Amino acid sequence: MIHNRRYRWLLLALVWLLSATGCWRLPLGADDLGNRPKQLQARQIIVTLPAARRAQWLAIDHDIRTRYALQAAGEFPLASIQVNCLVYRVPETVAMDEIISQLRTDPRIQLVQTNQVFAGLKAGENDAYATLSYGPKMIHADMAHRIATGKGVSITVIDTGADQNHPDLKGRVATTRNFVEGGERSFTEDRHGTAVVGIIGARANDGIGIYGVAPEAKIAVFKACWYTDTPDGKALCSSWTLAKALDAAIVSGSRIINLSLNGPDDTLLTQLLDSAHRHHIVLVAAAQDIGEHPGFPASLDHVIPVMSSGPNGDTAHPGWAATRDALAAPGVEILTTAPRESYAFLSGSSLATAHVSGVIALLLQYQARLEPADILAVLKRTGWAKAPSRAPVIVDACRALTGLGAVLECP
Q: Which one from 275, 309, 349, 350 is the annotated catalytic residue?
């Protein structure tokens, strides 16, 4: 049992030590391409071919490689948007922009873009550590659990892998899939995904650790990100891996997709997220807490952008939040699950995003036919903020349910 701040930091130090010795890390030296996963190697472009030209796919691929002296790096279909993706590596002697410009004039090709990099936004009930896990109580998920626990609502966490064998997560992860080269080796050792899954769905009332916001949701973990050998140890993803994971989540019929990550605008991923929206999937993404842009995919109109708040309700006030329907949730020093039966205090909008995904699962259990726009509207209407005129509202699970007609006593 953790009794005070001193022991809390001892726990954090222990978890860091275990993770540092057990996590599979990847070098990112510019000249060390052979040691990187193929999906993160430099100078890659993605070309998409439409289904209408299926009979020509092989010939087009051969023509592109021959005409532009490109090296084939990979190929994968995206059923949800009916295209086939070809990945090429551009030689050092050729300008990337020049190749992309030339390929975009080819009428056989639907889309051409670079393979971009994205990162997770993390800075560093009777359950044993529940008193230290302030997030669920702050958003009144504990009160909401009287009538909704997210039971049966499918959430796909597109992230790193997660330790589904953690005592607080056993039986909580229904499906796992890996979309990164060599990702199986580190799947259960991955910290970021383990933290996100714990916030969403750690088992409640089992006498162990913490409890999640939606402790009976049906969680799928799709690994599209991996760790790097950098001082901050960020989880990195690419357009290639995220596209495959998003496509799989759409095809699987997920109701919520949690994207605790952020990066540059991406045309291919935008097409997939548009498809997810057309399939009535609720999209929740981590947003930048500073600056004039929330980052991608939080910048898209049909994606719910989430910022982090502290335990007293304080949030940042970035310029972009004045023109967007942003939400906030606990994201500062959040106690959550970590690999190897441990726990850690972490911060960042990645953690806040997981809280919001959990709350949405509670709402969908209560009213399964809610549309994404309806969900955002009720969360905005029933949330609270210390400075309503400037700050994004902090979600409140109990009040959101009462906003849908549930009979609950909420603060």
A: 350
Range of 65's domain?
43-115
Catalytic status, residue 247:
no
The mean pLDDT value of the chain amounts to 88
Structurally, the chain folds into a number of domains equal to: 2
Coil, strand or helix: which one is 240? helix
192 flagged as catalytic = yes
Does 299 map to a domain? yes
Residue 147 lies in a domain: yes
How far apart CA 265 and CA 116 sit, in angstroms, is: 9
Q: Which of 61, 127, 159, 266 is catalytic?
A: 159
CB atoms < 10 A from the CB of 236, how many?
24
Is 279 labeled as catalytic in the residue annotation?
no
What's the pTM? 0.88
- Range picked from 318-327, 362-371, 380-389 for highest mean pLDDT: 362-371
For residue range 257-302, list pLDDT tens digits in order. Answer: 999 999 999 999 999 999 999 999 999 999 998 888 999 999 999 9
Please pick, among 192, 260, 342, 355, the residue that the annotation labels catalytic: 192
DSSP one-letter code for 296: B
